[in-house]
Amino acid sequence: MRLPRRDRAAVIAAARLSTVPLACSASFALDDGALRDGAFLLAAAVCQTYATGVWLLVRRRVALPSAVVSALDVAMVLGLAVAAHPSRSVAALVPLILLFVVWSMFLSPRALAARGVGIAGAIVPVELVHHGVADAARNGFFIAVVVGVCAVVARQMRERLDGLVALERHTATLQADAEDLQRRERVRIAQLLHDDALQRLLAARQDLDGAESDPSALEHVRDGLAEATRALRSLTHVVHDDALEAAGLESGIGRIVDEAVRRSGLTAHVAVDPEIDGHVATVVLPILRELVANAERHAEASELAVELRREAGGLLLRVADDGRGFTRAELVDAERSGHLGHAGLRRRVADLQGELEIDTAPGAGCRVTVRLRDAAIEARRELESSLRREREWNAALVAGFPDPFIVLGDDARIIDVSDRFVALTGWTRGELLSASPGQFPYLPPETAIEDAARIRERDPHDDHTAEHELYCRGGRRVAVIVSVRFVQDPRGGRGLRLVTFKDITQRRETERRLVAERDLSEAIRDAMQEPFLQTLDGVVVAVNEAFCTLTGYREDELIGARRPYFFIRTATLDEAFAYAARLDAEGTAETELLIVRADGSEVRVRVRGVTVRDVDGTSLGRVQTAHPLGAMPPLGPRRSELRAPS
């Protein structure tokens, strides 16, 4: 178990303090004469003084420089050893020096140099006194060489250790980045599934539910399922292409062919020019995958040959099979029936400004040759790289966008929605994206028709901001600031509306608290200046001296009074009840009442009341001030028949 830093310092200080007594005890037991040597006794006294001083500083929690203390510790130990045997050669101390050096190999070069200074400070002066300048210089040089070499080795070891630590950190960072990329890729695939194929399947299910009453809806179901199938195939191609492109050109070609062989039992022959750069994989592999898939599904072949080689200024990709072949008319009929593989292949090659040749005949197999120019390949790579960066940038913007948002198309249909909006409202992405144009589930039901009409009629280029209320799942309402901005879709040039929502529920709660605090402070201020009383549930709970002076009643006579209050003229009770009703409904009210004073006189006052709540909304009752209207006559003798309840 590792001791705390302060405890370790105390233990080391205690060991240092016992060094001189142990050395003297050993000398006495061995009877080596050191205790009769004045030099040894002087060295022992100096060392004991040093050890005692360090002990006292450690007891007082004084921070000491470790390098200096280490050097002095080494000087103390070696100084005692040399002073005890000054006549011996320093060579007898070499094992001690080597032991120290080995121990110092685990320290930093700076600490090692400090200990070297301690060694020299302990040995060289003694050698100078007992053996002369030559021996002192020789031994000092020996110590300097040993310590210098060890310092260099220690620095190299420290640099290697730092390098290993940096490498481990870099590896951990790369691993974290890889895990983050995997997570983002999973999110992207899930998003593609959710936004396209899943929505089409949901729509098909809704059509299927209505097919019982409308048989013609089955046609819509078929169309929806066909669209979902195409979307899933497209997603499969996207995922497959990403994996193959990440694997490299040769590995990607081998994987495509091997999968076809495994599924159909074809015999395959692959020839790839090793001089072709691997960066063409993003262009070549999608074309190769389509060609191999066509041969596997339609050719009924037993052998497949794939060739990729370099030509002058470009690449040649050839895929040949020994299948049944086909005619041009069969190809046209296949495209009309919905098999668009060759049509898509032609468009892909045409986009690359390449050439596509099909050599086939019934019973003669098929050979498809694709020629691509280097310039077109490089241009496509730059375009795809730019698009990839744009997708990553857009994804980062969406992920980092602080406010929930939706995107409306030019027909007022919701075409995109952020995760934050889903979390805010509780509506699912499917419910929002499948809504018909002009239908917005998040609008309050009582104003949904009018609000939707305003949204449809508003000029798409009109940017505006307003406060609104969102209708969330379960009936919850959320106050928001809605900002609408016109944006241009970079992909199709369409005009879109970006609608952002800033939740201001917390702001409104803060405003409510501020109003409550302001009303409370105003009531307290008025109460400090004018006659006032505080009531809680119709019972007087507090009055000030000014109100007692106004009415002539004592405080104990007023506290505890209940409605109708005895000090209010009966003729004005109706006004008092109406005033109380307004106070309950609005939180503040004013009226004029007649106060019956203790001497029987009456005084008309303007009463202003406010319902006081603390910042948490808990009612503290009503604070009501009474301001006399006109001159107030002095109080006369109390009327005995006017008895206030105690």
TrEMBL record:
Region (Disordered): 623-646
Keyword Manganese included in the entry's annotation: no
Residues annotated as domain Histidine kinase: 287-376
Stretches assigned to the PAC domain: 464-516
GO biological process: phosphorelay signal transduction system
UniProt-listed Gene3D superfamilies: Histidine kinase-like ATPase, C-terminal domain, PAS domain
Keyword terms: Coiled coil, Kinase, Membrane, Transferase, Transmembrane, Transmembrane helix, Two-component regulatory system
Major enzyme class: transferase
PROSITE patterns listed in its UniProt record: HIS_KIN, PAC, PAS
Annotated TM spans: 39-58, 65-84, 90-107, 112-130
Coiled coil: 164-214
Catalytic activity of the protein: ATP + protein L-histidine = ADP + protein N-phospho-L-histidine
GO molecular function, one term: protein histidine kinase activity
EC number: 2.7.13.3
One Pfam assignment: HATPase_c
Residue span(s) of domain PAS: 390-446, 516-560
Name by which UniProt lists this protein: histidine kinase
Organism per entry: Paraconexibacter algicola
